[in-house]
Amino acid sequence: MKIIDMHVHLCDDESFQHTLDLVKSAGVEKIVVSCLEPSDGVYKPTPEQFREDNARVYEWMKKEPGYVHGWVYVNPEHERESLDEIDRAINEYGMTGIKFECGCVCTDPRYIPIMEKAESLNIPILQHTWFKITGCIDGESKPADVAFLAKQFPNVKIIMAHIGGDWQRGIKAIRGLPNVLIDICGSIVDCGAIEMAVEELGAERIFFGTDLPDIDFWTNLGKVEGADITDEQKKLILYDNAVRLLGGDL
Amino acid sequence: MIIDTFTGIGTWPFRKLKYASADKFIELMEREGIDQAVVYPITSILAKDCMDGNLEVYDAYKKYQSMVVPFAVINPAFEGWEHDFETCFDKMKFKGLRLFPTYHGYGLTDKCLIALIKAAENKNIPVALAVRVEDERQHHWLMKVPPLDMGKVVDTIIKFPKVRFVISGASYSELSSVRERLAKLDNWHFDIGRMQGRHASPGAVEVVVRAVEDFGADKMLFGSNAPFQYVKSSLLKVLNAKISERDRELILSSNAIKLFK
Known about the structure:
The complex is a heterodimer of chains A (250) and B (261).
Chain A: E1 3-9, H1 13-25, E2 28-34, H2 47-63, E3 68-73, H3 79-93, E4 97-100, H4 112-121, E5 125-127, H5 143-152, E6 158-160, H6 167-174, E7 180-183, H7 193-201, E8 206-207, H8 217-225, H9 231-246
Parallel strand pairs in A: 1-2, 2-3, 3-4, 4-5, 5-6, 6-7, 7-8
Chain B: E1 3-9, H1 22-32, E2 36-41, H2 43-46, H3 51-63, E3 68-73, H4 81-91, E4 96-99, H5 101-104, H6 111-122, E5 127-130, H7 150-159, E6 165-168, H8 172-177, H9 179-182, E7 188-191, H10 207-215, E8 220-221, H11 231-240, H12 245-260
Parallel strand pairs in B: 1-2, 2-3, 3-4, 4-5, 5-6, 6-7, 7-8
């Protein structure tokens, strides 16, 4: 079955090569990548840091044209610089959408100009999202925050990453919002999560992703392969939905 | 041959587990190509009387003897555990013991646990220490249970050199944090059921490859944590890992056969 991995992080050339070797040998057709280094672990990158991150992704895109696609990583705390970086990444680098991590919670008004830019460019958002009963880190968005953002911008497609972490909360928070999509990536491997997502959201709103290189590729593929859903639904999740969303770029 | 060393059946109050009944569980194991499963009672994690769950596993064992390797859960902080221990191992012929210290409210240095492990030692019963049940970030808001302290896990393994321990449900990072201490010991294995990534460590990106490099395949047990988790996730990790066929066989079955014989 064809696969597009919509959620990959790369930090340096070594991890790029390891990841590339793995996904190619696993038969993955394309990967969509963001770089959170050198700001990884800081979560609030300066403009200099996110510019460097995105420049690295561009280098990898050039090394593997047509195979590596890019998410432009920005921090809404730096509005002007984020908007400029999006222009550069979309127009010059040919990236496909915007990646938000934990710069600030997505209910923050500083998201508004960036979301308006996304709407004008007709590009999707990949939003890190995780409800943690143990407490979120500073700037981390929860599923309810994504729902709030999605209602403000119904014409912007927002991918809620990790099914929101706590997937039961995540699915229920966004099920009535057709512009919110999800990816399944990350360390949560709970049996039943994919089935609930398909039943409540429809397979058309679900993307395959891994969170490589931190999280294991096979762990994530196993969630889809092991789910009690039809082959047609698996095909949508693993490949077809990504083609439909990013069709112009792929 | 594939032996899944990390599975359970029974009742879990916080979410519906589709394959938690014995019949549905066996259906899942057969569908995934698992030849044998080490099964513990999920019910016993939260039931006051662990025998509620042990009896469920015993019934499954009687019905599916060729598939089920029964492990009992005993809470040494609960009255009368000695009698239950004898019932499980002398009468019902359970094959191993699984402990949930953080759910049952005792510490790894408590006298009651020491007495239980000594009892297991006397009968040459393997002991699995459950590091966790579910990811702490997703616990029910009324019940936040910490994982086992890995340093104390190693202390316990050191204290009982004749007991065969399984460190069950640890992440790669947690196990790595005690790697040097574990390297000096022989009487332990670990399962891969909750090893989902190698979290920012350099080198190979497949967690099973990293674990083989760091700990050796002779220490590893295939385990899926079904029915909490997808069997396929753990299965694909081992079946596709770029390791030798000998190492793969050790992880999938040979280590378990040797450990639980």
